Amino acid sequence: MTDFFANFLNPEKRLFVGYLISAAFIAVIWLRAVQKKPLTTIVSGFFNSKIWFSKSAIGDYKLMVLNQFFIKLLAPILLGQLALTLFVFENMHLLFSRPSESIPVWMVMIIFTTTLFVVDDFSRYLVHRLMHRVPILWRFHKAHHSATNLTPLTVLRTHPIEAVLFSFRALVVHSLCLGVCFFFFSGSVSLIEIFGASLFVVVFHALGSNLRHSHVSISYWNWLEKILVSPAQHQLHHSINSKHFDCNFGAILSIWDTIGGSCLTSNKDQQIEFGLKGQSEAAHNLKNLIVGS
Amino acid sequence: MFIKRFTAKAVPLTVVLTSAILISSASFARSNVYADFPITLKDYSGSATTSTSYKGQMARHALESSLKKLISKGDMSAMQSYYSGGSADRVIIAPATKGDFVIMQSTIGELSSKNLSGKTYKGLIPGWPGNMTGPEVVAFMFEKAADAEAGYDAAHAYDYTQLVSKFLMGAVMYNQAVDNYLDEKLEADTKPNNKPYKDGAAYTGKEHVWDEAFGYFGAPSHTLTLSAQDVYNIAKQKDVSAADYNYDGKVDLYKEMAFGHAYYASSFDKGGKTTYLHDIVGAYMDGRDMLVAADANALSDSQRDQLKAYAKIIKTNWEKVIAEAVFKYAGETYEDMVKIEAILESNGDVAKAWRNYAKHWGELKGFALALQVGGKDMGAVSVRLNRLIGHSPLLLGNTQVTGVDSNGEYIQSNSESWGGYMAHMLKVQNLMVDEFAVVAKSHDQTAGLAELVKTLGGKSSAEND
Q1: Minimal Cα–Cα distance from B429 to chain A, Å?
Q2: Cα separations (Å) of A77 from A70, A146, B260?
Q3: B25 assigned to some structural domain
């Protein structure tokens, strides 16, 4: 149960209460200032029981609770992290000379924090793309895409097998970054943190990352959407319309999509239906979310 | 009124506590100093006043220390004399008087006219090229040292002073103690406790076996009254007050000096993470106290089991001390390689760094060879350790000594890249952690990495995009 609440109390998690509040503020400002909606409509939209108690949202909650228990079983995967980091560190010797002089800690912090952010984001893009393009992986990932209502909690609408793959991804990325950076900077490797989480993660989440899984369609300037994924772009990714399929795989940066030809910019007045083509309401049942319908 | 009531309660309590302390200390008293244990043999008629005797072992420590100085002079006949000669007149070259640190003995004969060759491990030394036994390796190194300049062969990066010294500490002291005295000589039918060690001796079989094993470790007899730092300072001849236990103004090499692996144990323990020195000497003390209590009677099976349990503490900790040294010098060798690479990249003069590299590698190799002569079949660990270190340091041009030809000349072959050999040093450190659970971890090249992985590593998450 404490793990469940940790989702809302840990600044490393997207559902941290501070990020939810900041997302709400951003949503209010956007809906009021850009879309000129009345405040009452905005507030009632936030508390719309048709969304929060929809079959889709209830499906989110079921998977969320199931994954709380499942995640615990994944702990042994991360025990391999030190061995893998050592492996990376040792093999770096075959490729580069070990620096004999150290550089200032602040510079190391900037380099490590940025490297980890970029590599982590790229790996998320890559894994996400594979989840869509490889048929067997799509069988698991479609549980996430079967959501017909998007709420911030949809972030945890994840098939347990996907959670395993995500854990391996985190293991590989962190081992790689730590092993490489330890080779160049030894023990001075550290992260620029705010509230115990990476600076970039906090900024990304504080700037409304939760709105990507919502009906608040915030779009950026066209040029910016080729660099950073806007909430509206991610909503396009969840679209039922086949012309939006396989676009915007990026997590934070859309540079990868731009390079990979999958970047789709949003329209200010886009109306999107979420979910999968031809799915029935039964798709939100836990059994169907796990074994497929 | 208050005082009366307090006293009435406090007095009985104090009596109970004091009695408890007295009773417990009487039952479990441990001697403080490994010296002057009484003669227990009932029919001993000689003039000795104690059954403790291990002068021969301390003579061997003095021979090894002196030999170390001689190798750097390259005098072959002197090396042979200290290794295998028997003259009582051989001067103790090290440790020698230094300022107020006055050494009592000046010749080996004042301790005991022993040699090292008779006690060198006779088995094969697989970590050294040429399929040689322990004494053959020593003889080979002497020849090479005599040909080299001050015991240093820059072309092959061999430092024979370090190689011989660290190898002998293992092949003589460690091997004799753990593979002989603390092994087969603890059995019931060998050197029994109800008979003199030899006719006319003041000590029983087991008493002397235990004393000899203690001597080989090289700790001052009053170690338990000292800190690890004190013992370290004694070995470095920096603190005469810590050494001179009987206040006679001189340091007795028999009882008051720190040698060999006891010195290395103190060097690791002074960091505060380990207690090898006191654990080992404590176990020696407990075993010796038990033998005094046995009062020259044959040991029962359970008494011998207890003695073997003390021996196990000694063996395990001693092995860890050597493994810690292997760990340390693998780390120093790695650091030298980083420096050499940087100097070469800037076209600087590498001679001094190369000298250090040879020195540290020599210590690494010597300790690695020592680790393998404890009478334990180390199996694959031994193979791995020898392959990782190789027969020589990695030389410029990425070659290594891989053998010895029929003329006794080294054969070199292509080997690892510079970085590849650095990775070998890391693997040696990992091997010492995995196989011997070393704790002090001096010059740890991955220090802090585990903590970084713990704090900055990836975490499981079901968050989706």
Answers
A1: 12
A2: 13, 28, 44
A3: no
